[in-house]
Design a protein that fits this description.
This protein has about 500 residues and is mostly helical. It is built from 22 helices and two strands. The chain has a two-stranded antiparallel sheet with strand order 1-2. It is globular and about 70 Å long. The termini are far apart.
């Protein structure tokens, strides 16, 4: 449909549109900025659709490949391609960007053009990170996405936005610098190549593998985020505007998890097997301990932020089970968490727009004033708790089953999160939605408008559709997962 440049379009259409949005200038032209941003986000999703319709699920080879020389002196290429691991994540990102633009339609009244442009630029850069097959190209996209997110939190965030943005930036930058050192080392070990697939075939000693593994673990672990380098996430979520929280939870965390599969596991497989106990331990701590931390939160955004850490713990746990069921479960959990976390943060945004509070104690009896909202909020709360027939159940169940085949106690500890997840999610829902109307301000709250209903309705369909019929997602992933697992099972020691 678009020739051989689909991935370039997926990356650059949102970015080019963002500069057109910025060109609208001041807030006097805010309506035009919004329309251009909506058109750019919609077009970004439209050009990504051929990735799904034209995808061959029977092969593990990279598809829609583009390769052009970029920096010849260092053999750096503009090299793009997707497989069954990265393609669904690009679609999730493009879909979420459209939702975020619509979500900020009426809420954002200050610096509208800059706000919309930041999300469009970030969307293009994240797509670039998912599609990059050159190490330096990946690093440029990986680092570049920090800038618009830093601005979104720092400019449109809450009272402590500067602190939260600075903390987020420092955490992620530190890990990324260590990763850069590893990328340069791999360049020399691969005979002067930054090609990621060449790195997969490069033989490395155990000491080098362990050091690279640890640098990648810090770089991608901060982004996931894994315990104990997760503390930037609740601060960033609390201070970020609703759209920032949606993209942060639904998309940027997934870039870290994606790095495990594209870099860490295939490049240093021996170290990954040797140090799997470390990642498994950190994942189980995140699943159990952070779930308990979520139980005591008074701020709804902070509660969902901590639940994200626990849910992403399932992803990293599944990856280090070294089985197709574990890897596919982790990937399904990534996509499901994108839908569910986006929906929950949008629900909190709906309430905040009306009452300007995220404190659980300020609510109560919402079902009496907002019955449609309460019904949709219930669905997403149940999905967050892992209710069967919702997307939240599928990935977690697959990971628990994969863990049970490795070690019963891994599965047992992970399964406890189904109890704590239900406890903190449903306890929050009960206090916010049920009971008598808490105050005159709650009494005055109105139900969803058409825009809000559209956003939450689309996500409800996604959550139920994936929960009831996850096969299309696993079919896309399966060939790539099996091929990559076979590679990871093969020793690369000299």
């Amino acid at each position: 449909m678009f020739g051989q440049e689909i991935l370039s379009l997926v990356i650059w259409v949102p970015i080019v549109t963002a500069f057109l949005v910025l060109a609208t200038g001041s807030d006097r032209n805010a309506p035009l900025a919004r329309m251009l941003a909506l058109a750019g986000a919609a077009l970004g999703l439209i050009v990504a659709i051929p990735l799904a319709t034209g995808f061959d699920t029977t092969t593990a080879a990279m598809q829609f490949v583009e390769k052009k020389s970029w920096i010849p002196a260092f053999n750096v290429h503009y090299h793009l391609g997707v497989d069954g691991i990265s393609m669904p994540l690009i679609l999730l990102n493009s879909f979420t960007t459209l939702l975020v633009v619509i979500a900020g339609w009426q809420v954002i009244q200050d610096k509208v053009a800059q706000y919309m442009a930041a999300f469009l630029i970030m969307s293009g850069l994240i797509n670039g990170a998912f599609a990059a097959l050159d190490g330096i190209l990946f690093y440029v996209f990986f680092e570049g996405m920090l800038i618009p997110l830093y601005l979104i939190v720092g400019v449109w965030g809450g009272p402590n936005r500067v602190y939260a943005a600075f903390k987020f930036f420092l955490y992620t930058l530190l890990g990324s610098l260590l990763m850069l050192v590893s990328l340069i080392y791999l360049y020399y070990q691969a005979g002067g190549s930054f090609d990621i697939q060449t790195w997969h075939r490069t033989t490395l000693g155990m000491t080098a593998q362990v050091l690279i593994f640890l640098s990648f673990l810090l770089a991608f672990g901060v982004k996931v985020p894994m315990w104990p380098v997760h503390t930037w996430l609740p601060d960033a979520h609390v201070e970020a505007p609703t759209g920032g929280s949606v993209v942060l939870a639904a998309i940027t965390l997934k870039v870290g998890a994606y790095g495990f599969l594209r870099f860490m596991l295939p490049i240093v497989p021996d170290a990954a097997h040797e140090l799997a106990w470390l990642v498994i331990t950190l994942s189980l701590v995140a699943i159990t301990y952070i779930g308990l931390v979520a139980l005591v939160q008074a701020d709804m955004k902070k509660l969902i932020a901590y639940s994200s850490v626990a849910h992403m713990g399932f992803v990293t746990l599944g990856f280090f089970m070294f089985s197709p069921l574990g890897w596919e479960g982790g990937l399904v959990q990534m996509i499901s968490h994108g839908f569910v976390s986006a929906a929950l943060f949008l629900c909190i945004g709906v309430m905040y727009d009306r009452l300007h509070s995220r404190q659980i104690k300020d609510y109560g009896g919402l079902v009496n004033r907002m019955p449609v909202f309460a019904a949709l909020f219930m669905l997403f709360a149940m999905a967050n708790a892992g209710l069967p027939a919702t997307s939240g159940f599928v990935g977690e169940f697959m990971v628990i089953m994969a863990a049970s085949k490795v070690n019963f106690w891994f599965a047992f500890v992970a399964a406890t999160s189904l109890i704590t997840g239900a406890a903190y999610t449903l306890w929050m829902y009960k206090r916010v939605v049920f009971g008598p109307v808490a105050s005159s301000q709650v009494e005055a709250m109105k139900d969803l408008n058409a825009r809000e209903f559209l956003l939450l309705g689309v996500l409800a369909v996604a959550v139920l559709g994936m929960g009831l019929y996850p096969k299309p997602f696993t079919d896309v992933m399966h060939a790539s997962v099996v091929e990559l697992l076979a590679h990871v099972a093969h020793s690369k020691l000299p």
